[in-house]
Amino acid sequence: MKDSEVISKIKALHHRRAANGEFRGLLREYYEKRLALRLGGEVEDALSSEDTIVIEASHGAQLGHLGIHRLYLKGAQLARRIGNAVMLFLVGDQYQPVMYPEINRVYFPKCGRRGTPFTLLIKKQDRRRPLYDIPPPSEKSILRLKNQMLGLFGPNFHHFCTLHGIDKKHADRSFFRENLEYVTEVLIESASKTENYADWVTRSQIVLLSRVFPELFERHLVFFPISMLRCLPEFPDLLEKVEEVNEHKLGVSRLQKLRGETPYLSRRIPLNLSPFWYHCPECSSRNRGLLSDGEASYTCTTCGAEVVQKIEEGFSNPDIVFSQILTPVAMGTTARIVGHVHPYAEVADGYLSKKLGIPPPERLLLGTFPVFHGLGDADGGDTRCSLIRALLEAEQGELRKLAYDDWSSCPEIYSYYYRYVSLKGEQP
Ligand SMILES: [Zn+2]
Fold it and tell me: How far is ligand 1, taken at its centre, from the CA of residue 129, in Å?
C-alpha cells in the first residue's frame, strides 16, 4: 500500500468516538507524574473531539530496533496528513526482563560482523518483576554503556575508512562524539526523573525523537502504558464479561484449528480463568488465576506457591485480547498499525463486532522495516539497528525517513559517514 491508499482507508472509517475524559485525565497523569513531561494541550483537545481519528500501535518498551519506532512515527506522520487524527502508542511496561531480553540490549555491529549486544544492568532479583516495578538504570550503568559505544567507535570507524578508501584525517569524528554526549545526557536525565525502567525508556525516546520530529510530537503522537489500562473506568465493566470473553476465545480457536491455522488457544481453558496476569508474591513470576467470589487463586508455575488474593490485587495488566477489546471502547481506536497479524486478532475483533456491536479497528499491516547502513555494518546494512545507534550516527534528515518514507518503502538510512563515500563518486 502507498501512503495515499492508507490515508483513504483510514478516512473511510466512520466509527469514530471521542476518547473519554477519564482516559485524557490518566494520560495527563502519566505524562506529568511518571514521565515528568508536559502533555501537549493540542493533543488533549484533539482527543476530546468526536471528529478525531485515533490510530493505535503497541509494543514492549525498548530503545532497540528501528522497525518498532517506525510503527508509531509513520502512524503519526499519517495522522498529521489526515489532520484530525492522533497516533496513540501503547507502551508494554508490564513485561518481565526474563521474557523480554530485548529490553536492555543495544545492538552494534563490529567491523563487518554481528557484534555481541551491549546490555544495561538489570539486577538478578529484578528479572522476573514487571518493567514498571524495576528501577531505571543507574548513572554508572549508562556511563558504562557510553564507554562501550565509544570504545567500539574507533575500530568501526577504522574499518569503514579502510573499506571505502577514506583518508581518516579528513573524516570528522566529532559528529559521533557530540551525539554520544547528548544521548548520554538525555538517558541520565531521564533516569533521574523517572521511577521505573519502562518510564525511563519511554521518556528517553520521547525526548530524543521529539527533537527529530517536533511537528509529530506536538500534536499527533502520544504514549500510554499498558499497565494503566486497568485504571480505565470501562475495565471493571468488561471484567463482568470474563466468562463470555473466554467462551469466545475458545470458539474462535476451534474455528482456527478447523481451518488448519495456528489457533489462539491450543487447549481448553476454564471459563473463569483471568484475562490478565498476576505476579506471584513469592517469586514475581506471572500467572493467570481462577476467579471466583471476588478472589483469584493459582499455583505459581515457577515456584509452586499456592496463592489466593483479591481479584483486583496483584495483577499488572489485561492480556492482549482483553486490551484490544478495551481500547476501542475506552479510547475510540479506529485503526491499528501492526507489524504482524497474530491469531489473537480474530478473537479480539470478533468479540468487538459480534458481542459489543462495535466495528473493530482496521488493522493496517506495516510489513517493511528500515535498513541502517553505518560504521561497522556488513554489505547490505543492518535490519536490527537500535534506535540509540541510529541517533549517534545519522543526521536528522536521514532519521526522518522513519516517518516520511512511503508506507510501502523500506527506508534505507545512511550514517553521516557515508558523506565521505559519496565524495569519492559512490552515491549511497
Ligand atoms: Zn512464584
Answer: 11
